[in-house]
Amino acid sequence: MIQVEQLDKEFSGKKVLEDINVEFEQGKANLIIGQSGSGKTVLLKSIVGLHTIDNGTVLYDGRDFHRLKKTEQKKVRQEMGMLFQGSALFDSYNVADNVRFPLDIFTNQSKAEKMKRVAFCLDRVNLHDVEHLLPSELSGGMKKRVAIARAISMNPKYLFCDEPNSGLDPKTSVVIDDLLLELTHDFNMTTIINTHDLNSMMGIGEKIVFISKGKVEWTGNRDDLLSTKNETLHSFIYSSKILKDSSN
Ligand SMILES: Nc1ncnc2c1ncn2[C@@H]1O[C@H](COP(=O)(O)OP(=O)(O)OP(=O)(O)O)[C@@H](O)[C@H]1O
Predict the structure, then answer these.
(1) 17 C-alpha vs ligand 1 centroid, how far in Å?
(2) Which residues pair with 23 in a beta bridge?
(3) How do beta strands 158-162 and 80-83 pair?
(4) Crossing angle of helices 111-124/95-106, nearest 10°?
(5) Torsions phi, psi of 205, nearest 5?
(6) Are 216 and 210 within 8 A, CB to CB?
(7) Which of ligand 1's atoms lies nearest the C-alpha of 14?
(8) Ligand 1 atom closest to Cα of residue 39
(9) Which of left, alpha, beta for 207 (phi over 0: left; psi -120 to 50: alpha)?
(10) Alpha-carbon span 156 to 84, nearest angstrom
(11) Which of 70, 164, 189, 208 lies at a 20 to 30 A Cα distance from 30?
(12) Which residue lies with its CA nearest to atom 5 of ligand 1?
């Protein structure tokens, strides 16, 4: 579980996050949603330590991340898997080398052990016989799967995904969402996903945190979403053309 308490973040005097209090639950897909500029990315980066924070705490299963010693922080970092927008694969590395990269950096495993783990991770994301291909030889959905395989290579307790469906068609997006949910359950990870995608919210939103103007405006789940009485959330979700059309 990741608990965020009384977190504030500002840039050059401009408050971007204010008094954020929220729990991201273990074994669940926790979604952060909100309009462009509401503070989702800054929140995700503050949680993983890519931003310093001005006030508050981020507890990783009770460990106060921002106040840990560097060596302890490094341990928690190794328990994090990250899936960046656009997959962020190394173009000149083949699939196996991309997935193996965190193992090369963070472990002393033998080459055979690493290759066994790479094969396991690729199997878990349903990719077969692609180890020797370069990213340029893969479809967008396959690249995303490789990036997911890399993100789980270190058997993380926490998985962070920034807009995992960006650049994917709707059908592939659903497949990737389902895969992220399945891995979250199978590995009992605390997964946090930043998304704009209403299909994702309805499909895998086991816990949803709605951010508006740098504050937590609402929390709930996919079943609560469409019947919300929260006006800001209502106007956010019903500004989507898909929902407007289906509610007519
Ligand atoms: N490094 C930075 N320096 C100064 N301001 C920043 C920085 N990063 C983000 N901001 C500001 O913080 C606010 C929140 O940005 P953030 O990127 O978190 O929004 P978002 O909800 O993720 O938007 P989007 O959905 O478009 O990615 C914005 O006003 C942005 O300009």
Answers:
(1) 10
(2) 3
(3) parallel
(4) 130
(5) -75, 75
(6) yes
(7) 5
(8) 18
(9) beta
(10) 15
(11) 70
(12) 11
Paired sense of beta strands 215-220 and 207-212, if any: antiparallel
Domain ranges of the chain: 2-238
| ipTM (interface pTM) | 0.97
Q: Residue-wise pLDDT tens for the chain (248 aa)?
A: 999 999 999 999 999 999 999 999 999 999 999 999 999 999 999 999 999 999 999 999 999 999 999 999 999 999 999 998 876 899 999 999 999 999 999 999 999 999 999 999 999 999 999 999 999 999 999 999 999 999 999 999 999 999 998 888 888 889 899 999 999 999 999 999 999 888 888 899 999 999 999 999 999 999 998 888 999 998 888 876 545 544 44
The preferred substitution site among 7, 8, 11, 20 for testing ligand 1, maximizing ligand atoms within 8 Å of CB, is 11
Q: Give residue 153 CA to ligand 1 midpoint distance, Å.
A: 29
Distance 39 CA to ligand 1 centre (A): 6
Of ligand 1's listed atoms, the one at least distance from the Cα of 12 is 4
Taking Cα atoms as reference points, which of 27, 22, 32 lies closest to residue 181? 27
Length of the chain: 248
Q: Give the residue, by CA position, lying nearest to ligand 1 atom 6.
A: 11
Query: What is the dotted CATH code of the domain comprising 2-238?
Result: 3.40.50.300
pTM for the whole structure: 0.93
Pairing of β 80-83 and β 63-64: unpaired
Report the pocket of ligand 1 as residue ranges, CB < 6 Å.
Answer: 11, 16, 34, 36-42
